[in-house]
């Protein structure tokens, strides 16, 4: 792993550890870590030409467990949809990293951690560069039993993360409002 990717993976692991601790399920953190893998992607969003849409990346939820996003310079464009349906722009300083919950942590947390829709809108006249790192689990993702009880009945069946990615990669599933709910929601 490149040093920069390694540093971002460590940041992700720290956040995941804090999440596990906050739910009192830290005993699952080490096994989780062992089955985590990471994918990094650098994105260039070209500035829109005249009469071209300023949509850089259509609204979607990440299919990862968690994603870390970093943008070069201060060319903003990332927008996140709040639970009330309002979109808000994310202003990032050069040293900021965004932690985005993916669909796998939504299912893992038994619906406690929302994986928000987000998109990229290009508003200025400059190209935008960003770097995103996605974490995926090798094997099954399942909510810890501590997060399932009478008041919080199970909302997702255990699922294989890689098989879920295959499901999402099929053209007929790309536009689902929530691929994870269609795939393994109860
Ligand atoms: O470039 C960004 O700020 C976001 C990228 C993104 O949402 C993604 O790659 O899934
Ligand atoms: Fe995304």
From TrEMBL:
Signal peptide: none annotated. Residues 34-138 form the Fe2OG dioxygenase domain. InterPro entries: IPNS-like_FE2OG_OXY, IPNS-like_sf, Iron_ascorbate_oxido_reductase, Oxoglu/Fe-dep_dioxygenase_dom. This is Fe2OG dioxygenase domain-containing protein. PROSITE patterns: FE2OG_OXY.
């Amino acid at each position: 792993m490149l040093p920069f990717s390694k540093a971002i993976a460590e940041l992700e692991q720290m956040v995941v550890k804090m999440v596990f601790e906050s739910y009192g399920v830290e005993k699952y953190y080490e096994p989780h870590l062992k089955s985590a893998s990471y994918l990094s992607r650098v994105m260039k969003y070209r500035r829109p030409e005249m009469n071209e849409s300023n949509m850089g990346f259509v609204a979607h939820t990440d299919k990862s467990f968690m994603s870390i996003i970093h943008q070069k310079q201060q060319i903003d464009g990332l927008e996140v949809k709040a639970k009330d349906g309002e979109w808000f722009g994310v202003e990032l300083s050069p040293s900021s990293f965004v932690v985005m919950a993916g669909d796998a942590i939504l299912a893992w947390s038994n619906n406690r951690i929302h994986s928000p829709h987000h998109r990229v809108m290009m508003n200025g006249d400059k190209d935008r560069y960003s770097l995103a790192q996605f974490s995926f689990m090798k094997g099954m993702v399942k909510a810890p039993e501590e997060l399932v009880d009478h008041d919080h009945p199970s909302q997702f069946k255990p699922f294989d993360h890689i098989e879920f990615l295959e499901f999402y990669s099929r053209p007929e599933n790309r536009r689902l409002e929530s691929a994870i709910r269609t795939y393994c929601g109860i």
